[in-house]
Amino acid sequence: MTVSLIFIPILLVILLNIPRLSGKTAYYVALAFFAYQLIAIFIPTFGSVQLAEVVNKLFRLNVYADGISKIMLISAAIVAFTALMTSKSFVKHDSRLFSLSNLMLLAVAGINGIVFARDIFTVYVFIEVIAAASYIMIVLDKTESSLEGGFKYFIISSIATVMMLFSVALFFLVAGGTGFEEISAAVHNFGGNTIILLAIMLFVSGLLIKGGLIPFHAWLPGAYSSAPAGVSIFLGGIVTKTTGTFALIRFFYSVVGFNDNIKMVLLIVGSVSVVAGAVAAITQKDFKKVLAYSSISQVGYIVMAIGAGTAFGIAAAVFHIFNHAIFKSLLFLNAAAVEKQTGRLDVDSFGGLGAKMPVTSATTAIAFLSAAGFPPLSGFWSKLFIIIALWSANYKGFALVAILAGILTMAYFLNLQKKVFFGEVSPNVENVKEAPLSFTVPAVVLCAITILAGIGFYYIIKTLIFPAVGII
Amino acid sequence: MSYEALMLFKLYLITAPVLFVIGIYAIIVTRNIISMIIGLEIMTKGVTILLAAAGFFNGRPHLMEPLIITMIVIEVVILMIAAGYIINIAKKHNSLDVENIKNIKG
User: Fold this and answer.
1) How does pLDDT run across A12-34, given as a tens digit for each residue?
2) Which domain holds residue B39?
3) What's the pTM value of the predicted model, to 2 decimals?
4) pLDDT tens for each residue of A253-278
5) Taking CA atoms, what residue in A is nearest to B63?
6) Smallest Cβ distance to A176: which of B51, B58, B71?
7) Does the structure's ipTM exceed the value 0.90?
8) Which residues of chain A make contact with B77, given a CB cutoff of 8 A?
């Protein structure tokens, strides 16, 4: 499973380009691959054993899958599938669809690569693969605002990757290799060494920039809100979560381990992001920007959970990554549906859209409630776990921040829901119809996943999440 | 590590951060988007020197060589994307000034 999920997409990209096929073919091939990934996670031997043998003869790859990887792979497959499906109705030219399908395949190969990596340099390489694909995807429409947002993203995230490379060099200097085991051993042997501390600091700063946490968030709202509709689903749903928070989990949980200072840094950065992201979201006027700031706030929750430093905290963080991937892609999907039907995203110009687009309105409301932590939706359970993890790790003040920030989350989402979907029908949206099936069907499916994951949360944590972090 | 090697190593360890800081400074003060990319390149060169030095002083240059080559390949790809951005921004605004791309507020 491990090797094939990295190599099949790269192979597909090569096959699609030599000879160059049509955009429609590329689109269906990419969708088929994302579906295959979802199946391959549950049936690991599904058509991949033979390929793995061939690849292992040609390359020496240091890859390995564990429980946390599975959850990331499921999220990646679902989000990528939805994102590509949504993009199709926005893309006019066949060649644009072709580029988008190829880039998304490459980005998913990168995500799978990070998830399987057992080597800090491999993590860097795949982060660059994802970043390169997303730089291009953001500006596919070549609008003025997307060039701006994309260029900002480009500069800031390139600085982040250079910082990470710097720390790879320092780790190599001390450990004599870049594998996780070597680095882990080096950290245990000379933990207080200045070079090691500097390396950890640089690597973590790089990951925090990539994840868009608050002191480093300047690129995120511009890039998310100016990207084409389908690409914002992909970016908001999975890209920053993999390159930022998942790599952070891997780095701390499997490589360097926790100590009190590291925990404090993560908790403070996380709680500042939770509060400031939510406050900034209240004041925004653009639908997608509200979602972008809410993304910062939710990533803050994940980082706080990692900062608890316990296995339970990691479990909570992983569960929240999964839930966030689902409800944030649902929200961006509905933003795309609104944009498609009305041609605008300015929150104040709507009103009463709920009567015109009942499915979009209802699914958005459920996603909001899940994000704000309403029982029995899935977001409630992961937030509850985060709070329990913080409380039981004796960070009671931070647990309180996490609880109170839930009210802020509710505030900006209610504000948005009221302005866009409820109230009197505004003259701007008189003739609007419900979005086509290509929007409503994925929305209903994602909505069902949110509800079912909430009701069946016990099954999910018992079979997927607790075994992944070694509880039970 | 002998004393001379240690001194030599310190020289590298000073050079790399200096190049890094020069790059960051260039990105912050410049008003031209091409200069920003050049600043980024200066940073990357600093890191390349550090990578090479780390391989040499650890006594495993053969392990470091493939890493540096991979890194250079990635760097070229990223530069190509940067070139694409610059061409499109220049076409849209007919200038390379950073002021043109400051309309979005974070």
Assistant:
1) 889 998 888 888 888 999 999 99
2) 3-96
3) 0.91
4) 888 888 888 889 999 999 999 999 99
5) A177
6) B58
7) yes
8) 128, 132
As a whole number of angstroms, the distance between CA A445 and CA A86 comes to 13
Strands (E) in A188-317, as ranges, are none
Tokens 């793995």 correspond to A52
Residue A294 pLDDT exceeds 60? yes
Beta carbons of B106 and A218 less than 8 Å apart:
yes
Q: Which H/E stretch holds residue A170? A: helix A144-175
Is B52 contained in some domain? yes
Do you find a cis peptide bond into A44, omega within 30 degrees of 0? no
From the list B20, B27, B92, the residue facing A147 with the nearest CB is B92
Strand partners, B97: B32
Q: In chain B, how many domains are there?
A: 1
Residues forming beta bridges with residue A24, ordered by sequence position? none
B92 in a domain, yes or no? yes
8 Å CB contact of B51 and A145 = no
Which CATH number do you get for residue B44? 1.10.287.3510
Element (H, E) at B105: none
Q: Report the residue of chain B nearest A170, measured CA to CA.
A: B54
- Residue whose C-alpha is closest to residue A346's, from A236, A189, A225: A225
In the structure, what pLDDT confidence band is assigned to residue A361 with cuts at 50, 70 and 90?
Answer: confident
Determine if the peptide bond prior to B17 is cis (ω within 30°): no
| Residue A116 neighbours by CB distance under 10 Å | 23
Q: Which residue has the tokens 């990209």?
A: A13
Give the distance from residue A67's alpha carbon to the nearest chain B alpha carbon, in angstroms: 29
Q: Domain boundaries in chain A? A: 1-257, 258-472
Mean pLDDT of chain A: 86
- Residue B102 within any structural domain of the chain: no
Angle between helices A94-116 and A2-17 (to 10 degrees): 160
Contacts of B103 in chain A (CB under 8 A): 145, 148
B105 in a structural domain:
no
**Cα–Cα distance between A322 and A336 in angstroms, integer?**
21
